[in-house]
Design a protein that fits this description.
Structural class: alpha+beta
Order of helices and strands: EEEEEEHHHH
Strand content: 15-25%
Oligomer: single chain
Helix content: 25-40%
Radius of gyration: 22 Å
Number of strands: 6
Length: about 150
């Protein structure tokens, strides 16, 4: 998962990352999510997982399916990268410069940003459309029409 933001005053990237040259005696390396604020300011956020370098896809910048606990680690990476994406979106919408320090402080707060209230449920929208125009669709019964007919 790769997230880029370019608002004119900052450019940032989020992606998973390992240090393949830093391998423990057990043959594993720490799995991070890397946040680059710009070319010189960046940070590594530990996921809490260690993986073998051979379980790393350097082109995709993601773990390979052959990695033990793939589903668990994949979910963790998605959660962290999504959270960072939410923080960057929040910063952009509120005119906040998402410095490394700001992002790390927001991560510590572990709050919800409520950034998706405008998301439309397709089925709910279709249901409302049918309700408004039920006279045009005599053969289609909506949930509400069906429910009131049974009462």
């Amino acid at each position: 998962m790769h997230h880029e933001c370019n608002t004119g005053y900052y450019y940032s990237k989020i992606y998973s990352y390992i240090k393949p040259k830093y391998v423990t005696q057990e043959g594993t390396t720490v799995l991070y999510v890397r946040y680059n604020y710009d070319r010189t300011r960046r940070t590594l956020i530990s996921t809490g997982y260690n993986i073998r370098p051979e379980h790393w896809d350097s082109k995709k910048k993601w773990i390979k399916r052959a990695c033990p606990n793939y589903d668990e680690i994949d979910t963790c990476l998605i959660k962290i990268t999504s959270k960072l994406g939410d923080i960057l979106t929040y910063a952009k919408e509120n005119g906040i410069d998402p410095t490394v320090e700001f992002v790390l402080l927001e991560l510590e707060k572990n709050r919800e940003y409520g950034l998706r209230p405008n998301r439309v449920d397709m089925f709910e929208a279709l249901e409302r459309y049918i309700e408004k125009r039920h006279h045009l669709f005599p053969l289609i019964k909506s949930k509400t029409t069906e429910h009131s007919a049974n009462i």
